[in-house]
Amino acid sequence: MKANLNINNSQKELEFSAGETLLKVLRANGFLGVKDGGCRLGECGACAVLLDNRPINSCTILAAQTIGHSIVTIESMGDNPHQGWQKTKGLSLIQQAFVESGAIQCGYCTPAMVLSIKSLLDTTLYPSEDEIRNALAGVLCRCTGYVKPVQAGLRAAQYMRGEQPVPIGESPSGDIFSLNSDSPKDLNSSDHLSETISTQVLPKIQIATLIDKKTTKIGKPSKKVDAQKLVQGKPAFVADFAGRDVLIAKVLFSTQAHAIIKNIDVSEAQKLPGVACILTHKDIPRVIYSSAGQSDPIPGPLDAFSLDHKVRFVGDRIAFVAAETEEIANQALKLIKVDYETLPAIINSSDAMKEGAPIIHDEPEFVNFADSNPSKNLAAEIRIDIGDVNQGFSEADFIFEEDYEVPKVQQAHIEPHVVLTYWDPDDRLVIQSSTQVPFHARRILAPILGLPVKRIRVIKPRIGGGFGGKQEVLIEDVAAHLTIATGKPVLYEYSREDEFVSSRSRHPMKIHLKTGVKKDGTITANEMYALSDTGAYGCHALTVTGNTGHKGMALYVGDGKYRQNPNIRFYADVVYTNTPPAGAFRGYGVPQGYWPVERQMERIARELNLDALEFRLKNALREGELHPFSTAWSEGREPKPEYILTVGLTECVQQGKAAIGWDQKYNNAAWRQIEGKPHLRRGIGVALVMQGTAIPYLDMGAASIKMNDDGSFNLLVGATDLGTGSDTVLAQMAAEVLGVEIDDIIVYSSDTDFTPFDVGAYASSTTYISGGAVIRAADQVADTIKKRAALMMEERHPELEIDANDLELFDGKVIASNGQFVTLRDVAIDSLHHQNQEQIMAVGSFMSPTSPPPFAAQFAQVVVDIETGQVRVEKLVMAVDSGVIVNPVTAAGQVEGGMVQALGYAVCEEMVYDEKGNAREKDLVDYHIFRADEVPELETIFVQTYEPTHPFGLKAVAEIPMNGVAPAVGNAILDACGASLSIIPATPERVWNELQKMKL
Amino acid sequence: MIQEYYRAAAKSDALNKVKAGYIPIGGGTYLSQHQEGISTVVDLQDLGLNEIKADAGTIVIGASTTFRELFENDLIPVSLKMAIQQELKINLRNLVTVAGHLCITDGFSIIQGWLYAAGVKIHIYPEGESIPLQAISNPKELAKEGFIESISIEKNTDVHWNTISRTPDDISLVGVILGQQQDQNIRVVLAGFNEHVNVLSPINKGRIMEQVKDFLLNAHSQYSNKFISYNYYFKNSITLLERILKDNFK
Ligand SMILES: Cc1cc2nc3c(=O)[nH]c(=O)nc-3n(C[C@H](O)[C@H](O)[C@H](O)COP(=O)(O)OP(=O)(O)OC[C@H]3O[C@@H](n4cnc5c(N)ncnc54)[C@H](O)[C@@H]3O)c2cc1C
Ligand code: FES
Ligand code: FES
């Protein structure tokens, strides 16, 4: 049908069919700011537009229903204010507020959020925080924890009322939010607990005295460099680049958990008009590989094929289809007939190593890594002994032993996996992918596709969230095979259900933990055994599970003589099961470790009547000590000693406990009671945690910087900003060294043809490793600039002798100590056009021999219904030592978003399978992730240390927020009502079961 | 797949289409996604069926009224508004219609439970007859020879509910809704027990607990909540019921 739709106040005559949704019609007609969250069921809200000024999900309405109504998309909201001679209205006030407040991380949800706030502010300019949260509750955001979007809403209201909000970075009252406060106020009170959310987006920061105060860009809340385009909903994500002639790919997934494919009949499907190609295992080369996006050699078994004659989980691939439309592709899937020979399946990891268990990987091509053994269904075996645990246990006065369990959970980035492939005019295969690892993807895909690396170009545009889920070469091969087969561009996007049944997730584990303690609270030995379930393929099996021990078991070394010679054992078996594969998920094995470790620490403290915090700090790692695992294990490579130089844990505990009011609440029976609600009890809990910063001697990032005519610079990095703001902090570092403004640094990431190598975004490495590379490149560029500037100054003032080493780059100038200067523009013009012409540019690489751990104290306050077991989390406080904070707004965003993601792990997220391997959770209703109107109060505190191994003293921040929330919540539940959970999430029934046990 | 979309201009026009096999479409949140087996739809949005009116004893709500319109209307009882707020977030509230929700809902729905507990009556066009919701096993079936025109709630209806969930916005794992009109016609509705909300009525005021327990025991084989055990549901639905009774029906 042809009809007029009123879009953004203009009548558009569009052609669409009666059954087409508004989402489809809008995107097909170039309104690409309307995002497809893959659910297309009204669950995620990424596709929201305003219909008659009210937010609705455009995927849940037919375009035809909207005839006669007004439709508003993000495209109408505002433009970039700087467009040459063309005058534009600039960004709308709401968009400005979003940019300034740091409300945009990956930006995939941003257009929907901006429109939701517009709808609210059109009805009231004085919204309460609750009203803003309600307005945003229709849009899921997996990145921000909603703190900054809410603050953006309040800020926008201020702007629209004609008020001038406090500039970001300036403190309204010179209080503890002040960035430059030399002496942070005493936080040892809880009177700020009642503080309501404001438009002030900065976290509390404590400044270490060692920090170089002269920085002008480091430590400042710079706006994100990609915020402008994201807030306008500009085409920035992979699916936005698909042309009209693109073929749509779909994959036929297995309905069996373990089976041989005896026959596949694609003849009917092939006859369907519009089907371009169907590929089965018979059609493509059989190349074994691992989909884990890691450095060479992949530290895990090679056990996967693009397509195989055997399926190993419900959701495994059987056939690839490319068709002219999605509907035809889906119809073709239905017409493919598969004849299975069903094999016995392993669903429960405890069955994997039993006598007579079916063998999941019996393919002759299987390539072992380290101690993998497919005949025992073992993807990896880890045996780490530090000191002598048996001796340690014999010296203990008490032994504590317990079994724990952590579930499989999903990254649930709002942009699903998506890839676009095509041949370029030189017959090189271009793969545009939402990937965290473009360089690994190129290397891993080359043999699978039968192409040399040099004939593949991987481009990573913006990523709509990854959280480890995109550290996987998960779907690139599907589209690439189909492009090779058809010669045509192919787009392959996962639906939300595909994500649940066929993507990667966090390894579920069953863990036994044994701890020896002396009467005075000295830990004498710690022993953990983890049975880790890698699912059907061994992606990240060894490394994720190794990190459960490496970082989860490293924090508590013991005190006294044990401090120098800790007794730690970490054994793990990583087994195959017929369930969807696990993989990388923010935290990378460490959240699994801290659930048992910190639950056990709490039990010990309570049973031995020790102060919960002192007991922890007494046994925790301290500055100058050896990382206990550094000489024992290094992701399957040769371990080398690493000393820990900065530990801000004691201060984190101090600041965190003040913020949550620990001293007034912990173990306080009166505080636990809630007046008039005898069935409710309050409780408070803590967990101390650590993480790592990159993989030592392995992770390498590189950057190149090139100077332009006007004294601006192109910064090219292989690092992949997946919404974390890494492009911004890298620009801040370059700007700091080169003495320019952030917007004089034009960042481009990442493209295997143009940007230098980088391992990619994982292991909390980007700011530290890629940042190190940026600084090295910038230092070289600065040196060249200074040398040329010295000559230029001497030419202008022959009487002066200028030493280039005495020059400083600042404010767009090269300045001598006597005040003489030349501008960077002068230097650029001189170098490019006037004399001894050269392109001033440099490449820097950075690899670290150490992985300095960030530390944190995580606090939680909960209310438990002691009759039903229902838990509500009221407040989370995290005090983090991440070294120097390069950008307090983006760093706080990492902590806030991480805490909320971790809260899902604590209370509601889990993926469960029936005995046939069918998933219980296939959508975002059954798999609930937090919405804006239900998150607890969040508080972030940074305790800065100066990490000497990095030029700017920083450590990582991205992953550590995942580690402490679950155990802190578990400990708070214990404090509230005595229910001692060993399994998460803390669902009402689990808590209730524990409460029933207590009655016995 | 929907091949034809027709927007009716008058009720009679819509009725003709329904009789010709067209499927009525409300907010479209369900139908736009579940098109299999459906080729023609008739949109009721222009029929003025989104009015909320009240006379002395009854509130009449047009079938096409969205839950946002209900949420914002002063005539609507607060306990229903709270159920709406918990169950349908704003983007859905703006589209989902009362009739659509009655036809498409699962056993977890507190809104649906509320409507049953309140003893809502359905008015079908053209009969104009009022059919108690409780008398209808599948409201969708009603629309074979007509369409839902409105629903009505007695003003003197008192409905209270309580739920257990993993997080405040999550589906209600256990939901108990209790409604009564002027000390009689007590109804208990259980949500989360299986794929439909379960209505227990008539309930004898003096034997509420026993009747609910009897139901739970007798219906054990029909229990199908995939998230929690029968035992947990049994014990905790009773706890919620006790709380409702204690707080509201002393
Ligand atoms: C993210 C999400 C979460 C949800 N959560 C819940 C939940 O927690 N609990 C729950 O119960 N449901 C839930 N739903 C389902 C939702 O309530 C339905 O999508 C909605 O009720 C359909 O309403 P609609 O007006 O959009 O109906 P439509 O899609 O227009 O129609 C639905 C059905 O109603 C029929 N119909 C509509 N109007 C009439 C009429 N006047 N006369 C006769 N028949 C009519 C249609 O023919 C069709 O069969 C959820 C849906 C989404 C997308
Ligand atoms: S709500 Fe429309 S794509 Fe998720
Ligand atoms: S910023 Fe909201 S989903 Fe990423």
Structural description of this entry:
Chain A has 1000 residues and is of the alpha+beta class. Chain A folds into six domains: 2-76, Beta-grasp domain (Ubiquitin-like (UB roll), Roll), CATH 3.10.20; 93-231, [2Fe-2S]-binding domain (DNA polymerase, domain 1, Orthogonal Bundle); 238-343 and 411-502, Alpha-Beta Complex (Aldehyde Oxidoreductase, domain 3), CATH 3.90.1170; 370-401 and 509-640, Aldehyde Oxidoreductase, domain 4 (2-Layer Sandwich); 645-692 and 852-1000, Aldehyde Oxidoreductase, domain 4 (2-Layer Sandwich); 700-847, 2-Layer Sandwich (Aldehyde Oxidoreductase, domain 4). Helix content of chain A is 27%, strand content 20%. Chain A has 25 helices and 32 strands. Chain A has a seven-stranded mixed sheet with strand order 9-11-7-18-15-16-17, with helices on both faces. Mean pLDDT of chain A is 94; it is low at 172-196. Chain B is an alpha+beta fold and 250 residues long. Chain B has two domains: 46-154, Uridine Diphospho-n-acetylenolpyruvylglucosamine Reductase, domain 3, CATH 3.30.465; 158-248, CO dehydrogenase flavoprotein, C-terminal domain (Enolase-like, domain 1). Helices cover 30% and strands 26% of the residues of chain B. Chain B is built from nine helices and twelve strands. Chain B has helices at residues 11-19, 67-71, 78-87, 90-93, 98-103, 110-117, 139-142, 208-218, 230-248; strands at residues 4-7, 23-25, 40-43, 52-54, 58-62, 121-125, 130-132, 147-154, 157-164, 174-181, 184-191, 198-203. In chain B, the strands form three sheets. In chain B, strands 4-5-8-6-7 form a five-stranded antiparallel sheet. Chain B is globular, with a radius of gyration of 18 Å. Chains A and B meet through strand 4 and helix 25 of A and strand 1, helix 4 and helix 9 of B. One FE2/S2 (inorganic) cluster (FES) binds next to loops of chain A.
